[in-house]
Amino acid sequence: MYGGKHIAKGDTVFIFASENDGGRGLIVRGAVTSSRAIPKKGGVARQTPRVSIAVKRTALAKRPLGRSKLKQFTDWNDGLPETELNFKFYRQAKNKIVGISDETAGFLDGFF
To answer: Which 3 state secondary structure label does DSSP give 98?
Structure first.
């Protein structure tokens, strides 16, 4: 969903602990050490592409960033990094890997 199937070894990732599962939002930045596509199941018409990744942690978040700080950013066309994150992470509250813009990655770097 949102470009996550294109993740590859060497990519930088920002990991959010799902607040739907008791997490607190942004927790670490890391580097992908391996990535592989999960084969689709036979007999299922519509399937979301799935990948399995391994990540090496490179930094812990120093400031919190989660749903409570992002939920006010709902103007989907304003171009703000906060809005991009709110749209991709919280519009459909499922665990996922998403691609983000360079601007949003720069914004997230400010939390480390």
So the answer is: strand
**By three-state DSSP, how is residue 53 classified?**
strand
Backbone phi, then psi, for 85, in 5-degree steps?
Answer: -65, -45
Could you tell me what percentage of the chain is helix, strand and coil, using 3-state DSSP and rounding each to the nearest 5? 25, 30, 45
Which structure tokens are listed for 93? 């509250």
Q: What are phi and psi of 68, to 5 degrees?
A: -60, -35
Q: DSSP assignment of 74-87, as one string?
A: --TTS--HHHHHII
The residues with which 104 forms a beta bridge, in sequence order, are none
pLDDT in tens, 38-67: 888 888 888 888 899 999 999 999 999 998
* Encoded amino acid at 111, one letter: F
What tokens does 59 get? 């930094």
- For the chain, what are the domain ranges? 4-109
Give mean pLDDT, residues 4-12. 90
E-strand spans in the chain? 12-17, 25-38, 50-60
